[in-house]
Model the fold of this input.
Amino acid sequence: MALSNEKFLVFVLISSLLVGCSGIERQTEKAMKAAEVAFRDDEKQPNIEAGLIQVYLPKDFNVVEEHENNLILQKGDKVYILFVNPNEKEDSSVLFLATKLQGDQYLVLHSFQNDEKFGFISIKEASKEKYELAVGIGAVKLTTETDKDHLKTDAKQMMQVVSSVPQK
Done:
C-alpha cells in the first residue's frame, strides 16, 4: 500500500514535530536532574569575592559587572545574572514563589530541598531555539539564556555557582 505524496508529507511533518517536542522534553528532564544532583553534592567553596558577594566561579567564567546584590557574569558569549537577597536564608522559598507567581509558561518549574536548604530550577522558552534557565538556592538565583543542547551542562554549573554563595 503506497502513501500518496500528501499523506507522506503530513506524516513527515507530524513526525518531526513529535521528535522536536520530545527532544526538548528530554533535555529539560536531564537539566532538572543535573541541577538536583549538583544541589545535593558537596558545595563548591567560593574562589572569588566581588563586591559583597563571595562565590565559586568555574574557570571559564568572568565577572563583568559588580553591583551590591548582583553580579553580571560571562562565559564566552553567554551572559549570566547572579542575584543575592541578603535578607533571606538558604532555606527560603521566596525566589521560587516569586518565580511561580509570574504566571509564565514554564517547561520546567521544579523545587527540591533538604534539611538546610531549598533549591529550584525553572526553564521557559525565551525565543526560537533559546531557553531562559534559572536555578536558585534560598536567597541566591542565577539566570541565563541558552539552547537546548547546553541546558544540562549549564544547569549543573549554575547550581554549583549558587550553592557556593554563603548565606546567613
Q: What stands out?
A: Residues 5-40 form the longest helix (36 residues). DSSP finds three helices and nine strands in the chain. Confidence is low (pLDDT under 50) at residues 7-21. Strands lie at 48-50, 53-55, 62-66, 70-75, 78-84, 108-113, 118-127, 130-137, 140-146.
